[in-house]
Here is the input.
Amino acid sequence: MILFTKLLLAHLLGDFLFQPNKWVVHKEANKIASKYLYLHILVHVIIAMLLLWDLKLWGWVLVIGISHYFIDLSKLYANPYFENKAIPFFIDQALHLVVLYCCVFNSDLVGHTVGLLQEMNWPLVTAVVFASYPSSIIMAKLLEGMSDRIELDHKSLPNAGKYIGIIERLFVLIFIILGRWEAIGLLITAKSVFRFNDLKESNSRKLTEYILIGTLLSFGLAIITGLIYLGVR
Here is the structure.
């Protein structure tokens, strides 16, 4: 596991800390002809070798470097086809992590993967998944009749409310698992403070009631999910 951690650190340093924005822009503009693409790969190889400090592993570092080149190159050419640029970014990062995983556990890749899946905390995974998008959809269905009656006179970021709800439910779930119920109260207080100005300016009782119901429903779903997880784990 130490080997994977070192390679992961090398990847994080090479892809984020030691890759200036100038390189990223140049790569996107020139793609395979960009000199910074090759410099970026060289930086990755050097950092990996320095962290591993073992010449016997140079072959795997070379594999990582070559795969990194083709994955990055594929992303550069695939980027224009995606309206949401976050999609190719996360696919790119996932593929890099898969390569690192395969290199580290190549001697027993299938056995290690099966063991990893068997040891995974599936109730926790299920709770986290439910607290995210499924809960958002459930809330949207429950509040559907009310949302049509709310008139908004201000603009907000697309899907901002949905993402705020997902994040707050995940925080609540974490606090329940850790047994820090008081932190949930602080979270509710913080959200109330941030929402106060919006409600004050709108001077709408319907909006106030809608936000209050939505907040209580969101926290309620997260609390129920957390309690069920604690009961079945």
